[in-house]
Amino acid sequence: MPKQAIVQPSIEAVEIIETPIPTPEDKEVVIKVVVSGANPKDWKYPLWYIFPNIGFACLESVGDDIAGTVHSVGKNVYEFRPGDRVAAFHEAGTANGSFAEYAVAPDWTTFHVPHNVSFEEAATVPLAALTAAIALYVDMKLPVPYNLKQSPEGEKRVPILIYGASSAVGAFAAKFARLSKLSPIIGVAGQGSGFAKTLVDYVVDYRKGEDALVADVEEILAKEGLGSKVPNVFDAISENGSLEATLRFLDPNGGTVSTVLPPRLFAKDKENFKYPSGVIAINSAVPRVHSTHKDFGYLWSRYLGRLLEDGRLKAHPYEVIPGGLNGILTGLKKLKDGNASAVKYVYLIEDTNDVSTLGITGQRENRIESPSSHQLKDFPFLGSK
């Protein structure tokens, strides 16, 4: 019987269980997983905390980046058929995530993987790319790459600063910003600065300290003749001081900022952190592509396939964690310890051993702790403005 990995709430053990191949609902695609991608959310937001009312089945849903071949489709799916090479964004808070031999995704966040793109590359794309897209084009309302007007000589440029430009989400944001002809693109990075330099016009190193970071950004803006404040900021980190730093160079009178985490949960001073009244601030929550923004998820999933096929978009650098499902705990701990720099961890599911060698095996135990004390209990998964 196919296997599935269950990550325990402590992130200290992974249980490998046997589970039947899922049966697709009307608009679902069942995918035989070749490669699963890992994301920081897999250890930061354990779903048994975020969705305590869904029930025990939510323990089976960790892992949202899927790359593999179609096994079966629901009766109302017409774009995919068994055997197709696909990548998909699994719906958070539902069963049958990508840490398994078979996973499920809605057809509107599934897309064909071009033959020039490997499954490893494809597994780096769905969640990160859709997060960047919904931030830039839904929330920040920046010009989309496929509807650009000819720029008259002397037309005002559209600058953007991306905090965390070497992260998967930040890197895709930088790539989209380039396709949208935003300029200049300023990236904030640290250890991954070398990679960030391939994506943006300027790289600022946050490790020099907040004052130096702000000074460097202001120097770039002055050099470009853009004053001293940035009109558009995408914070792909949204913790550990990034919120406070970006507040210092964001235009207080008409600036727009998108964060991937809500400031009220991740600011240093959660009670008192706030943006000026002239700032449009949005927490960009990608799960909206499965609820309030299904059309956006549909259009951009297909657009991602096209961009990958013709080379306008490249996948994120990746590192294969050995052991398949048995390597999930290793990958999650590496993410938690901050070891991922300009790289995305992926798992080759076929490398899973026949016998589980890590964590807890056998029957599952209901170890769900009370969500009342977890810092993410009020996480705004439908976004907030």
Automatic annotation (TrEMBL):
Report residue spans for region: Disordered.
Answer: 363-385
* Gene3D superfamilies hit by this protein: Medium-chain alcohol dehydrogenases, catalytic domain (3.90.180.10), NAD(P)-binding Rossmann-like Domain (3.40.50.720)
* InterPro entries in alphabetical order: ADH-like_N, ER, GroES-like_sf, NAD(P)-bd_dom_sf, Trans-enoyl_RdTase-like
> Which terms does the record give in the GO molecular function aspect?
oxidoreductase activity, acting on NAD(P)H
Q: Which CDD domains does the record associate with it? A: enoyl_reductase_like
Keywords from UniProt, A to Z, are: Oxidoreductase
Domain Enoyl reductase (ER) residue range list: 9-343
State the SUPFAM superfamilies in the record: GroES-like, NAD(P)-binding Rossmann-fold domains
Record PANTHER family: HYPOTHETICAL OXIDOREDUCTASE (EUROFUNG), OXIDOREDUCTASE, PUTATIVE (AFU_ORTHOLOGUE AFUA_8G01420)-RELATED
Subunit-level organization? Monomer.
State the family it belongs to: Belongs to the zinc-containing alcohol dehydrogenase family.
Q: What is this protein called?
A: GroES-like protein
